[in-house]
Amino acid sequence: MDFASIKIPLLLTFLAGISTGAGSFISLFIKEPKDSYLKFALGLSAGVMVYVSFAELLSSAVDDVGFLQANLAFFGGIIFIMVLDFVIPHEYIAERMGETVHDKRLMSAAMLTTMGIAIHNFPEGLAVFMSSLGDIKLGVALAFAIAIHNVPEGIAVAMPIFYATKSRKKAFWYSLLSGVAEPVGAIIGLLVLRPFITPSIVSLCLAFVAGIMVFISFDELLPLAYKEDSGHVSIAGLISGMAVMALSLHLL
pTM to 2 decimals? Predict the structure, then answer.
């Protein structure tokens, strides 16, 4: 595997990761962002990831390596990210800003959230990289979905740091740093897997990635999107994400 074959997957992973910086930028310069926009975006991201996980990643792996092996890899991905989420939990501190904004421990909590999100971004970076390696159009779709998903993560990191330090610069850089974990995750995954990469290993990795994406969607994106959503904005985003993904796969 030469650099020419991995430069686009690495670029997509990098672009998805640094979208956390966009989240911090938005959070610091828009005083009253509409909650409905965030809910729609989260639903859209989940729709893209769930659809592509079942319609493309898992089904492709089943065709290539067989039903049993593909599903073992799929549920292995779910168990992996579930254990990671249990051992190193992270949450959107912005959800509980009312409780912590005046707390002297806000900066400490913000730093823990930054580290938690950064660690959770490692497998997301591997997901974009491996998907792009297997099929570039899938990589583009996942990079887009994860970029949307990373915007509220950028907000989650930036807002408490800004309130704690009163520094927009620190808030932005810490937020961006949490997203850089994604290309780092891709590079580490590449270094570990490079000697073993075969078409079958790539297919198993795609099924594994599908499990990660499904768990992230059901455990993180959709619960946050549906929180206090009485206008069905989130389901509109979810269906739109699936429809956009189906259309893009058809056209591409």
Answer: 0.66
